[in-house]
């Protein structure tokens, strides 16, 4: 079975159309036609006049249709100033599916390309002025279970992966190309990039282990591709090519551009040419004279190509292949070899006869100008890159055809950031709760609404060519609508036992100092105060036992001859069977007991007089925390010294004598720490805070003391 392929190489100076026929593993050139632009409608590979370029394309199309019938679709390639390359990989679990077919592998490759497209889109979020199309890709390697493999077809394993390098052009380059084709009555069947097309047909995979550069020198641009380690390693482009040489001839010999172009072509085939300048003078120019006249421009072109190759490759490659009409520039091979410091035979011009997959016939044109046009047709067949058109918010969008494209892909291709289409959250409210500010968020905004062909759609719904998508921003959220109960949650009740009787105490809620319920609505800057029973005193007041705050009798003692009245004695109160004070905190489940028969202790006297019984000093001794203490007062009754736990009776006469405070010293620790000196051997060493010390050194709070024997 044969298959015909129509391709166009739309260059800066000419449009080359050709028709290839695929026969089994080879291709045969059936026909070709070359038409020059009537005016300079293209510059550096970019279409500047869509109408003029379309007219040239239509002439090529009509000429070929006379012999081969109607031509509706075409394979094309693009070259541009702002090439972007992305290297990425994707993996797929294959242990649960049948043997991998060619279609499975192609889908895996295209998934990697789309991943690269996403990465480039994310990088360009801030640069909204430039959008990119993928115009080609090359496979770097296949892997099966993390092992590199030559082909994935019919392979079995757990994980298959592919790594690719994808190339992107600004959308303006692709859109102008599509517009020109449409005007000429053609539909773009597949799009690729000129260096991809050339390298695919000239350097097969078996040769890509060599570090080789392929340079396609056209009229406006010189496209570069590099192979290494079995793959296409990098792409690049310089905006200098054959036109610079033509313009130099035009300026030096006073020729218009078409005459200079004709002179350049004749010089590549003969040693002298006859020209007539714009003043009407005829002269014969030798090859040597012409080369001398444009020597600087030839050097400039060679230097530009050399610089880009070194930038992409970091060093000179092993060899350089030149294709394209501009590769016939006089002495370009020798000068490029010299600048790359390569032997002269390592830089060579390659023609269409060097394409391995192309059958050699009498119709096959020789020379380098047809390598890229033929490569476009073959590359488009072997590595097709298709696009579909959809409409997003009444804007036409073309995107890479993954065969499973979704609405999300369309939004990405249209430069729409879905995250920014979500409704904004409602304005938050700030409420003070017991003096602490609490932020209450508003409601969330709604997601964007999406319609596909006038029907409601989801972001992951599949799309097809010609679909229409409409996306609208979601609605913004509202300020918070919240009640006291929703803010505070469940407010627990406090249940306390008072002398065996269970008392349940409610919590009082005040909003802006006005008593409120749990269903009270809150607004921004409201002040909420929650009042609960916190202390023993609060409990007695709540229970209506204020008289217990006063005590049941006067309790008088004499201290140093002066009467001291004790009232509101905390010792009359117990909390969970422990001595309590009126200001002690209480919590749910506590038991409070009031007893009027218990006498106060010396401690109560000291608390009443705001005196301390002892001096305390916290220290660390041999990494053990100790508290040293000394008496601060001496309390006696009838000449007997009392402790702070001793009970006081009404009318007791007490004597309280303050003891002057003397500093604690190192040797005081032996009253509180156990040191077995009898078993100690050797000399002892003492340290205070890491420094040597003596037994009579004064101590300060939190000193670290060490004693050891050695």
Automatic annotation (TrEMBL):
Domain SHS2: start-end pairs: 5-202
Keyword Membrane: no
Pfam families noted in UniProt: FtsA (PF14450)
Taxonomy, superkingdom: Bacteria
Keywords from the named record: Cell cycle, Cell division
CDD domains the UniProt entry points to: ASKHA_NBD_PilM-like (cd24004)
GO terms under biological process: cell division
Record has DNA repair as a keyword: no
PANTHER family (UniProt xref): CELL DIVISION PROTEIN FTSA-RELATED, ETHANOLAMINE UTILIZATION PROTEIN EUTJ
The name this protein goes by in its record: Cell division protein
């Amino acid at each position: 079975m044969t298959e015909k392929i129509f391709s166009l190489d739309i260059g800066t100076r000419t449009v080359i159309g050709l028709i290839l026929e695929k026969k089994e593993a080879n291709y045969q050139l059936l026909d070709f036609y070359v038409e020059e632009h009537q005016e300079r409608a293209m510059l550096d590979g970019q279409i500047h006049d869509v109408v003029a370029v379309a007219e040239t394309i239509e002439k090529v199309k009509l000429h070929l249709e006379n012999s081969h019938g109607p031509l509706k679709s075409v394979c094309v390639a693009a070259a541009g100033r702002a090439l972007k390359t992305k290297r990425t990989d994707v993996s797929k679990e294959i242990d649960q599916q049948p043997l991998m077919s060619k279609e499975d592998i192609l889908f895996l490759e295209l998934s990697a390309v789309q991943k690269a497209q996403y990465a480039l889109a994310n990088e360009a979020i801030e640069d909204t002025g430039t959008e990119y199309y993928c115009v080609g890709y090359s496979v770097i390697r296949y892997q099966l279970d993390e092992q590199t493999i030559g082909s994935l077809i019919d392979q079995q394993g757990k994980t298959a992966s592919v790594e690719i390098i994808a190339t992107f052009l600004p959308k303006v380059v692709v859109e102008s190309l599509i517009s020109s084709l449409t005007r000429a009555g053609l539909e773009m069947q597949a799009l690729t990039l000129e260096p991809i097309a050339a390298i695919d047909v000239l350097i097969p995979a078996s040769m890509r282990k060599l570090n080789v550069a392929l340079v396609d020198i056209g009229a406006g641009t010189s496209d570069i591709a590099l192979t290494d380690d079995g793959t296409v390693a990098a792409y690049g482009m310089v905006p200098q090519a054959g036109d610079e040489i033509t313009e130099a001839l035009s300026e030096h010999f006073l020729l218009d551009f078409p005459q200079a172009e004709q002179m350049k072509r004749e010089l590549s085939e003969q040693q002298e040419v006859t020209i007539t300048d714009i003043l009407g003078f005829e002269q014969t120019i030798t090859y040597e004279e012409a080369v001398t006249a444009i020597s600087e421009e030839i050097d400039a072109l060679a230097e530009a190509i050399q610089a880009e190759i070194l930038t992409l490759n970091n060093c000179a490659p092993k060899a350089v292949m030149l294709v394209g009409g501009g590769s016939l520039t006089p002495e370009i091979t020798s000068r490029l070899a010299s600048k790359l410091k390569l032997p002269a035979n390592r830089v060579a011009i390659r023609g269409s006869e060097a394409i391995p997959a192309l059958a050699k016939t009498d119709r096959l044109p020789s020379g380098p100008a047809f390598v890229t046009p033929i490569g476009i047709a073959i590359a488009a067949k072997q590595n097709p890159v298709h696009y579909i058109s959809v409409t997003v918010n009444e804007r036409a969008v073309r995107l890479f055809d993954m065969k499973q494209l979704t609405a999300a892909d369309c939004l990405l291709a249209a430069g729409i950031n879905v995250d920014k289409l979500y409704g904004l959250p409602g304005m938050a409210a700030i409420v003070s709760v017991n003096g602490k500010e609490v932020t209450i968020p508003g409601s969330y905004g709604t997601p964007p609404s999406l319609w596909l062909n006038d029907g409601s759609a989801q972001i992951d719904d599949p799309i097809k060519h010609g679909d229409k998508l409409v996306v609208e921003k979601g609605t913004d959220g509202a300020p918070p609508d919240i009640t006291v109960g929703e803010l505070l949650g469940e407010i627990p009740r406090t249940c306390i036992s008072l002398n065996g009787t269970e008392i349940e105490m409610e919590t009082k809620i005040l909003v802006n100092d006005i008593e409120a319920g749990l269903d009270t609505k809150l607004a921004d800057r409201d002040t909420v105060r929650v009042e609960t029973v916190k202390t023993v005193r609060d409990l007695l007041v709540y229970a209506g036992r204020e008289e217990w705050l006063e005590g049941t009798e006067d309790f008088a003692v004499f201290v140093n001859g002066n009467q001291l009245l004790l009232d509101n004695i905390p010792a009359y109160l117990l909390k969970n069977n422990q001595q309590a004070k009126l200001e002690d905190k209480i919590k749910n489940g506590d038991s409070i007991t009031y007893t009027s028969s218990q006498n106060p202790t010396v401690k109560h006297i000291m608390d009443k007089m705001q005196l301390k019984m002892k001096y305390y000093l916290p220290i660390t001794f041999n990494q053990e925390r100790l508290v040293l203490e000394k008496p601060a007062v001496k309390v006696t009754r009838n000449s007997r010294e009392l402790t702070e736990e001793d009970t006081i009776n009404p009318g007791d006469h007490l004597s309280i004598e303050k003891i002057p405070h003397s500093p604690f010293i190192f040797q005081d620790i032996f009253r509180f720490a156990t040191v077995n000196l009898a078993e100690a051997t050797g000399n002892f060493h003492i340290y205070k805070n890491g420094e040597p010390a003596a037994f009579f050194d004064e101590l300060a709070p939190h000193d670290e003391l060490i004693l050891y024997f050695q």
